Amino acid sequence: MNDPTAKQIYAKAIGELALSYLESFGCPAITNLAESRALTVISKIKGILDAEDLDESDSYGNIMALVAEFYSQGFCSE
């Protein structure tokens, strides 16, 4: 699979299936870990959006800050 967008969609689908499968068997350690990671990312995104120095006229810069956070958390690949 050479197309990065297709790979991301595939990875998301596999992740959702794996999480659903683990939840059905009652694997709280893994589901709690996934939830914790998601909440960490949400918290960091909220921090970017709530930053006092957020320049609402710089939409591109604000979007790039959010995209950079997704990359740093491994949710996107180049």
Would you spell out the secondary-structure blueprint of this structure?
Blueprint: H1 4-24, H2 28-50, H3 59-72
Helix pairs in contact: 2-3
3D architecture notes:
With 78 residues, this protein is mainly alpha-helical. It has one domain. The chain is built from three helices and no strands. The longest helix is centred in the middle third of the chain and has 23 residues. The relative contact order is 0.11. The model has no long low-confidence stretch (mean pLDDT 80).
Our estimate of the beta-strand percent is: under 5%
| Total count of helical runs of at least 4 residues | 3
Assembly annotation: single chain
The biggest beta sheet, please?
none
Q: Choose one word for the global shape.
A: flat
Task: Summarize this structure as a short list of keywords or feature phrases.
single chain; 78 residues; mainly alpha
State the gist of this model.
The chain is mostly helical and 78 residues long.
